[in-house]
Amino acid sequence: MNDANYSLVLFTVLAQGSVGMIVTSYLCFRLAGRGEMPHVRREWIMAGVLLLAGLTASLFHIGHPFGAAAALTHGATSWLSREVIAVCLFGALTAYTIVAMRKSLPASLMLGTAILGVVSLVVSGAAYAPPSLPALNNASPIALFLLTAASIGLASKSFFGPKDDDGFVAQWLIFVLIASIAVRIILPSVWSSGGAVMMKTGQAWFASPVFWLHIVLLAAPIPFLLKSKALKPWMFVAVLAAELLGRLTFFVGTAATYQNIGHLF
Questions:
Q1: pLDDT tens digits for range 62-77
Q2: Which of 19, 21, 18, 29 is nearest to 108 (CA)?
């Protein structure tokens, strides 16, 4: 794996984590029925920092970083360009909403930002589902990216009060982590019974120690959450590490049709 792919791992996971934090923050704000809460703005600032770090990392995927603006010019034909446009719009709206939060919590802006974040995830999933990757040329990248956003977003609540939300968030985090583990086991199982390239992908995922370590890290918070329903900062660290390792498997272990040109699989 080259440095460019490492930058993609950081970009996708951090950007999706940012979306998850903002969606989780908005939902907790609305469902809790509270008024203005100072911790919400801090939460959004942290989400903005994650997104900025992800966008910075993405520049190292480009051969000529100073020409990155050219990626915005092919939105009509390229999913990668649409991804860049969607993420940049999401970032701009996030920044605007954070500024607006200095006086009050603008619910409509928060909702619009959360929706745009989810749209950016769907567009990103489409960008990483090319025909050359049969295992991913479907809705699985979108599902994986949404699960990444949800797990990081929910786990991040361990850093932001009020603690009264812990029980509600913990229940959803347990559900998302179990769903994440299930999807990550089911997908390579299905691929292993598919065509030659898909089978190679499934086998590579299951044979990877990184894949199994990421499963273990995803599962680590579950027994503690079931017992106490209390969110702890180490859970966010475990989930973030798990998602980074899982994304490594996503980029490294997925076989492409062009890899064995001239050879039998």
A1: 544 544 455 555 555 5
A2: 29
For residue range 239-262, what is the model confidence (pLDDT) as tens digits? Answer: 999 999 999 999 999 988 766 555
Architecture of domain 1-127: Up-down Bundle (1.20)
Kindly give, in sequence order, each residue whose CB lies less than 8 Å from that of residue 250, ignoring residues fewer than 6 positions away. Answer: 141, 144
**Residue appearing with tokens 């120690």:** 209
The residue among 105, 109, 116, 140 whose CA lies nearest residue 126 is 140
Residue 240 contacts residue 155 (beta carbons within 8 Å): yes
Please give the CATH architecture assigned to the domain spanning 131-265.
Answer: Up-down Bundle (1.20)
Distance CA 206, CA 202 (A): 6
Number of CB atoms found within 10 A of residue 95's CB: 16
First to last CA, the chain: 20
